[in-house]
Amino acid sequence: MRDARATKSISGPTPRDILFDQIGSFLDKQGLSPDPAHYAFAFAVLSAPDRPLARAVAELTEDGVRLSRQDIERLGGQVVDGPPLSRPRTADQAVDETVDTAMALVVQTQQQVDGFAQMMRTMRDETRGFGRDLEKSAAAITQMAEIDEITRITTTMIGRIRDSEVRLAEATAEADALRAKLAEARESARRDMLTGLPNRRAFEEAFAERDPEAGPYCLAVCDIDRFKRVNDLHGHGVGDRVLTAIGQAMAAECAPHLVVRHGGEEFAVLLSGVGLADAAGLLDSVRATVAAKRFRNRDTDTPLGIVTFSAGITAIQGDETADAAFSRADRLLYVAKEQGRDQICAG
Questions:
Q1: Count of alpha carbons within 13 Å of 228, Cβ hemisphere only?
Q2: Assign residue 308 a region: left if phi > 0, alpha if psi is -120 to 50, beta otherwise?
Q3: Would you say 344 and 283 are in contact if contact means Cβ atoms under 8 Å apart?
Q4: Interatomic CA distance for residues 26 and 20, integer angstroms
């Protein structure tokens, strides 16, 4: 019994391990480098969650807002410039990489099936003509002379060709059906199952395939304000319905621009053919529309109160990457959050 308890104790994480992981996560979320001063500040916050410092940090970082340099220094910490802490891949990132690999296999398979289907159609067309011509030739030979052996051979050949034509037609139909299923699978991989909106993969593909002639382009990153409260007070089922309703409203108001659920309660909007001022005006109109909605819990008829979103929007430079544009819009989003939420910050 002593050995079993000892083994169980050794195999489980210790409080120190848990605190270390929490510190790493804290530095990662706040974009802080792994400097001893930052570790000390994070330790002071996380090791005493009931003290005024921890409560002040919790209030400042509500709804995912990052601490600013002024916030940390005002709370007695020190900010040292340096690259942010590099964290291990999250489970979501691992899933994304797995899905990316699966999508690559789907695309490769679909290309192979496309080639096979085209080959089947070509062979069917060619053999159909050959069989027709051979049948005419056999009839002419039979009329010219009673040559039993030639008649038997040509009849056998015609039968085999007709059988091949049927099999080729069946193979072509199967290849076309498989192509349709693969196309459906690719479309499903670009769609968010909860909201029905395109997902982050669809956004990345659309960003990469931008048409220079359709520019200028702008990117908005939107985040529902205090969404955690909705889940905590009313449950995740209600939260999912609110998330879906807001996403669908954004898509309708922003049409024909692309609106995707980028993850969690975050949406991204890729706008084409509009400048930054007009794009920001459109997003602000959408913001006002969402803020005017009055959500209720349909099970209890309890009002949910006003639900709003904040957004950061930026003009996409000619050849910059999606990560660069998204990072800039994301920073603007946090400025909007820090300034009071329910607003659009452009830059």
A1: 5
A2: beta
A3: yes
A4: 10
CB 230 within 8 A of CB 243: no
Checking phi first, is residue 151 left (phi over 0); if not, alpha (psi -120 to 50) or beta?
alpha
**How far is it, in rounded angstroms, from Cα 14 to Cα 341?**
39
Gap between the Cα atoms of 171 and 7, Å rounded: 60
What does the pLDDT look like over 217-231, one tens digit per residue?
A: 999 999 999 998 888
Say how far apart CA 249 and CA 27 lie, in whole Å: 35
What are the boundaries of each domain within the chain? 2-74, 91-189, 200-346
Highest mean pLDDT among 12-16, 113-117, 276-280: 276-280
The answer, as to whether pTM is greater than 0.70, is no
What amino acid positions are annotated as catalytic residues? 265
| 3-state SS assignment for residue 301 | coil
CA–CA gap between residue 143 and residue 268 (Å, rounded): 75
Can you name the residues that pair with 261 across neighbouring β-strands?
A: 199, 267
H helix or E strand, kind and range, residue 314: strand 309-315
Q: Using CB atoms within 10 A of its CB, is residue 130 exposed (0-12), middle (13-18) or buried (19+)? A: middle
> For position 290, what pLDDT does the model report?
93
Indicate the helix (H) or strand (E) that contains 222: strand 217-224
The CATH class of the 200-346 domain is alpha beta
Range list of H helices, 147-235: 148-189, 200-208, 227-234
Residue 198 and residue 260 in contact, taking contact as beta carbons nearer than 8 Å: yes
On whether the CB atoms of residues 267 and 250 are closer than 8 A, the answer is yes
The enclosing H or E element of 346 equals: strand 344-346
Q: Are strands 217-224 and 309-315 parallel, antiparallel or unpaired?
A: antiparallel
DSSP letters for 235-285: -HHHHHHHHHHHHHHHHHHHTTSEEEEEETTEEEEEEES--HHHHHHHHHH
Long-range contacts, 148-156 (Cβ 8 Å, 24+) = none
